[in-house]
């Protein structure tokens, strides 16, 4: 699992700070999460083969999370894309995009599917053989979802020593990997756990931005391998959180701790602070495995 | 008159080439012409005090000319702008912007006025004491206007020698500068041209992008001081012009010559050519005073 941070600052793009956008690589698929203005240039800058993106997830309709979407959609057409593109985001996103394509007389060279979200509850919005994506309802000034990406567990791992001991033939190995029990010729049944080990743990990634502090998300992101949680402010500015519906670094760390995640990545920084290390310094007192998102940085887990 | 080129390439923004946007400074006013994705970052990069912009002119609704507009409008709000902002552009632009502001629950902190254009004919769309802006109907794949910015002539200049000779008192000087004749005490009338000179010539700027070759624009831009004319292609690719409704550098030069402008600036280059000097080389054979737009370049006239 790789996470490419294309932009991780709040509010507005600047020369040295980009608004929210990231690429999650999972199982050789590339998922684009949020798409602030300038995302397509960031994708080029960091040499990401962005034509491979087939699924785009938009958390909410504030400009710093989606103003780059229509440009990316148009550029795909200019590149003569033929593969389907799926957009997941709040209701209204389809109207915004289609209105602009219509008025510019620029329909796409490929099929564009919108999956508009309206539910206040967590729901599975994407699933294929290997990955499930579930919404994480967030508390922000407009309807907002985070997204939990979970890789499905692989097959069970053969316990070759046990198979040999019980004289299991090779033709049964796939059945064992799939979790099946084995009936011996004498009628005795060997339960699967005698013949196999649990599969390798699978990575999961929870993206939570933008949101005020909310413990309601804890059950959904429980035990996630990586949590990206917004930290727009430092604790000394916590008074700004209620009105703007954002979080502090300390609050992000509390959520990471409560949810028992393995790693926490902070981002969506306000540019009022000169040094983003202040965010990590604050969070690490509560949650040790805290990392800082930075524009252009790639995390490998 | 200053012209800041923020972006001058066609199609899609890249790491080293920005789409169309420029700032015209005329009489201490800043006019923004077109606003491709990333324009607000270009304004910051080139240290332009963009909060001074009060009038934005959008030629047409192709993404490379306006996808940065909604972001700029939002950023003005984040900067707590209070001054009115006027947007001039094709019908539909208001719906696109207001829909996005509505769905993001982000109304502006200032008054936003839309002046939607529908006329196929040239018309004056802006006028104040010092400047007039007239549309230049262009021929492109969607409804498109260029814009002619004309500074109004200043007052006439006193011919002090003549005034002394005829014994004109100082209290009449303003009347003479305003073009009035003077009646002497003996009843004799001195016509204004005896007492004053023509005012300094005033600059004018004609922005023409995007368009296929069209001599219809020549009467409108006749004798303009500076013409910016798109040159998406070189003459060797003229076959691409008909379908895409763009021009070659040679065609831009022909228009400059026919319109008898003083200076020609080329831009809206396709990125297929490695070296933009090829555009100048082609145009200069027909029109000598040809210059190349470059992202970040400032022309002073």
Mind explaining what this structure looks like?
The structure is a homodimer of 301-residue chains. By secondary structure, the first copy, chain A, is of the alpha/beta class. Chain A folds into 2 domains: 2-154 and 200-300, Ribonuclease Z/Hydroxyacylglutathione hydrolase-like (Metallo-beta-lactamase, Chain A, 4-Layer Sandwich), CATH 3.60.15; 157-196, no CATH class. In chain A, 25% of the residues lie in helices and 28% in strands. Chain A is built from 11 helices and 18 strands. In chain A, the strands form 4 sheets. Chain A has a 7-stranded mixed beta sheet. In chain A, strands 7-8-9-14-15-16-17 form a 7-stranded mixed beta sheet, with helices on one face. Chain A has a two-stranded antiparallel ribbon with strand order 10-13. In chain A, β5, α4 (93-103) and β6 (112-117) form a beta-alpha-beta unit. The radius of gyration of chain A is 22 Å and the shape is globular. The first copy, chain A, starts with a strand and ends with a strand. In chain A, 44% of the residues are buried. The A-B interface holds A 11-15, 37-38, 40-41, 44-45, 60-63, 67-68, 70-71, 74-75, 78, 90, 92-93, 95-96, 99-100, 103-106, 141-142 and B 11-15, 37-38, 40-41, 44-45, 61-63, 67-68, 70-71, 74-75, 78, 90, 92, 95-96, 99-100, 103-106, 141-142.
